Prior knowledge:
Layout: E1 7-8, H1 16-26, H2 32-41, E2 45-46, E3 50-51, E4 59-60, E5 63-64, H3 75-82, E6 88-93, E7 99-103, E8 112-117, E9 122-127, H4 130-136
Antiparallel strand pairs: 1-2, 3-4, 5-6, 6-7, 7-8, 8-9
Amino acid sequence: MSEALTWEYRKRPIKDSDITRVEIVTGYKLPQEYIDLIRRNHGARPSKKRFNTQKAKGVMLKTFLPITEEYDVNLLNVREWLKVPAIMVPFASTPYGDYLCFEYFSPENSPAIVLWIHEKRVKEFISISFGKFLQDLY
């Protein structure tokens, strides 16, 4: 049996209005599994921190981005700073300044998970869904 995912360094709890604000600004509906997770673990760090991309094994995750404006480094600010393609919404960071993003192919579909490599301005595929991404963390 695999070890359960635990979380530390949670930020203050979020409100429904915080989620709505992100969805309005980005133009995309956040995955329900992500919403459920950030309601319990807003801006937290998971106990399992490694994931694989289509090109790299053992990439390290640092933290999930807070979504509220009270934190300078938050999902919407990072999206603006990075100038990621419009179909991407960053939700977590690596220790190296790269970001995990939701990649939407249409506003109503569940997004894929990709790694945005900021220095090269390229993406690497990680997972077909947020739930699968969480399952695959090690």
